[in-house]
Here is the input.
Amino acid sequence: MPSETLELRDGLSGPRYYLASRPLAGGTPIQLCFSGGWVTGRFEWSGDYADRPRMHCSIELCGGGTFDHSFEIPEDAIVRWP
Here is the structure.
């Protein structure tokens, strides 16, 4: 699967992020490249130019359960569709 960076574009309905020329909506699954491999999470963005998009993911815990985590996606981060 090819990897790219997120691209912010202006559209008729306002700004929107795109990945590999496909629009991203809140909750869309994406994969972000970490030094140890690909991590799957969901894309979120407020729609405000001043805000960076975020990735939400769940970390599996020993003994069951998960820890939900959210962080900014850095500019020029390597991202792909799952």
Summary: Residues 7-80 form one domain. The first strand starts at residue 7 and ends at 11. The mean pLDDT is 94.
